[in-house]
Amino acid sequence: MRPFRPVFLGLLSLGLAACGGAAAPAASPSSAPASVSAAAPASAKPAASTGASSAAKPAGSAAAKPSASAGPPQGEGSNGYSGGDPNGTLVKIAYASPAVASWPFYAALTQGFFTQQHLKIQMIQMAANVAVTALSKGEIDFTNSPSNAMEGATRGLPMKMVLSSWASAPWTIVGKQDLKSIPDLKGKVVGTNQAGSSPYLYMQAAYKRAGLAVSDSQVVSSPGTQDTYALLIGNKLDAAVVSPPFDADAEGKGFHEVEFIGDALDLPYIGLGTTTTYLAQHRPTVVATIKALMDGNAWLKSHPNEAADLIVKYIGVDPDVAKRSTAKMLPLLGDTGELKPDGLQQTIDIQTELTKQTPAVKAADLADWGPLHEALGKS
After folding, report:
1. Which is more confident, 62 or 305?
2. What is the pLDDT of residues 287-329, one digit of tens each?
3. Domain span at residue 224?
4. Which of 172, 190, 271, 376 meets the CB 3.0–4.6 Å disulfide criterion with 146?
């Protein structure tokens, strides 16, 4: 069991999110651009809550067929993408930015696993803190960043993680060639997602491990990894925290891996987080959504070539970059759908470090694996 490495959050992002405000980004140097707005574009404003949507129908026995409506996002800055059964139960899921992290969602859409579960999926792009606010208001049904739901739970919000799609996180710091390790980032301009987000927390832990604090760098925060990467290749940053395929693409543009930081914590990467209210009122839909994503994981592992094609389709990177990302990421996909117990406790420890008070919830209260076990046919 890896011991918890204390990390210190720069901002109380989720506390602000719970009140409907956006987390303020870390101050950026005058040479860097202003932080990208955390607000979702007007077109991305989620629809009103569906209320008591009907439960997902049982999966059919026929093999899954590709969804004709599935496809890549409708351009940069769009409200996301959709697919599945057009007549199925509407399920709205927030995501921060296009990335290999969302592979299981891409697979479930294109291979018909959502259709098989009679689900109509709407993926809505929004910053993490905006997603937590939308989730708490019932404007969306899930966030695909379960760490945000878990942190919300430590703040007293009725949220739980119900799926962890990855066995470990692939976060890494890429940067200019003269940067060889994290100590070299002292005084440099480094980009990452907003304070409180998964890459931010991994960055803090990695800095702590190296004997530094995040404040030793000039941090520029963005709503999503895609935005951070755009700043990097636009020469606005010296280094950035990214995940595949952005790391492989960066190498083709003259950058290199400064240090892998995915082993600094055991927090969840991508999966599902929802509210206890939605879980109680729409449990069959929760189970069906989880089943489709777990089927997506299994399909990805058995179809590496087609998995690489999905990266090209949904993210728009070069096929060679997609292949390299596939080789790096496939081994990190989870088999169980559950998070290591260390990860649950680390969420508690992080909030204790931040607030100097132990959250009222226990680590085991942050997740509910019941729907997952039901989806997998476990007793």
Report:
1. 305
2. 999 999 999 999 999 999 999 999 999 988 899 999 999 999 9
3. 13-33+170-260
4. 271
Considering the domain architecture, whether residues 323 and 356 belong to the same structural domain is answered as yes
At a CB cut-off of 8 Å and minimum separation 6, what does 73 contact? Answer: 80, 81, 98, 125, 314
> In the structure, what pLDDT confidence band is assigned to residue 45 with cuts at 50, 70 and 90?
very low
Strand intervals (E) in the chain: 80-84, 89-95, 119-125, 142-143, 159-164, 172-175, 189-193, 218-222, 239-242, 256-260, 271-275
pLDDT in tens, 92-111: 999 988 889 899 999 999 99
pLDDT at 13 over 70: no
pTM: 0.73
Residue 281 and residue 155 share a domain: yes
Given the structure tokens 């997952």, which residue do they identify?
A: 372
The answer on 185 and 145 residing in a single domain is no
Return the SS3 of 175.
strand
Co-location of 230 and 142 in the same domain: no
pLDDT tens track for 347-359? 899 888 878 888 8
- Rounded to whole angstroms, the Cα distance separating 41 from 45 reads 7
Task: Write 369-373 long-range contacts (CB < 8 A, 24+).
Answer: 369/162, 369/337, 369/338, 371/162, 371/279, 371/283, 371/286, 371/287, 371/290, 372/162, 372/163, 372/290, 372/294, 372/337, 372/338
- Does some domain include residue 339? yes
Q: What Å distances lie between residue 318 and 103, 256, 308, 309, 313, CA to CA?
A: 16, 17, 10, 10, 10
